[in-house]
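Table 4 source record.
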Amino acid sequence: MKAGVTLHWHGYDVPAAMDGVAGVTQDEVPVGGEFTYRFVANQIGTYWYHSHQVSNPQVIGGLFGTLVVLPKAGHGDPVDVVAAAHSYAGMKTINGVVGDLKVPAMPGQQVRVRVINTDNGPIETWADTPFRVLAIDGFPVNGPTEVTDRSVTVTAGGRADLGVTVPSDGKAVRVQISKGTAVVIGAGDPVAPPQPAAALDLLSYGRPTALPFDPATANRHFDYSIGHRPGFVRGAPGLWWSINGHLYPHVPMYVVREGDVVIMHIDNHSGELHPMHLHGHHAVVLARNGVAATGSPWWMDSVNVLEGETYDIAFVANNPGIWLDHCHHLKHAAQGMVAHLMYEGIDTPYRIGGAADNRPD
């Protein structure tokens, strides 16, 4: 494997030239080369970055980092914890360290735990005390309420900010990041709480509020139908992931104009779950399996689509470029589960493959 790299700013809606996708927005940066990424840090929230050149082995090997953007005036959480979950050779880690992450805190303090899932599959996170889900994929939840008997599913590539309060007696709070790791806040070492039997439904969590656009005015409607079929990908025969019946690289682009309101219907009949990730945009979930969202607007850039599930999502085409819309189980992306969102009139001088051996998967 070549050792070239790029950096993709996952969930941060950078200008297209800074998206860090080899063969689409730049050539891979070879050993001894350099590339400077420049963008304005004005999108508040929890994000991460990772290589998007042969990304599956590079991310598995640790070519990633975290990105947290705070308001200029600071934030209301005295204790702010970044917890990047990653598996190395089957070992669960937080911020690259095996075992629990210990965080000092005083009685009564508010704590924000920023859970970032850098693995290829979903994780469940929960706590031994009531908590609130403050943000999903960097965007705040409106009117979050206390959660006591549910875990939170964090999609591959996704993020969830959890808010907890240290008890008045100072006893430690344990936030399980997955079955094998936890953030322990305060004094002591509490026993790991059992995983709740069910996950929180973000479709109905929080308080509804107006969207900044009206999905009813959508002028682009797309289908993203995920299947599994025989054929050839990069000349190799096999059973491959298909998008609307097509195999990579022969998947027609989704084409928009700047300012379009887009509704995308995702359905998964492939036999496996897929964490879907759209670059350069955040979308709001309108419905899952035909059931309309009733809680806080569920803004996301990464969403778990189970076998047999459907999602209807909406976004505004407000970031011109050519953008990947792919599965963030990165092995699946390498097996052809990659589509593109293209704005009319936008082209790129870069090409997948070629002399630079660009491999955006």
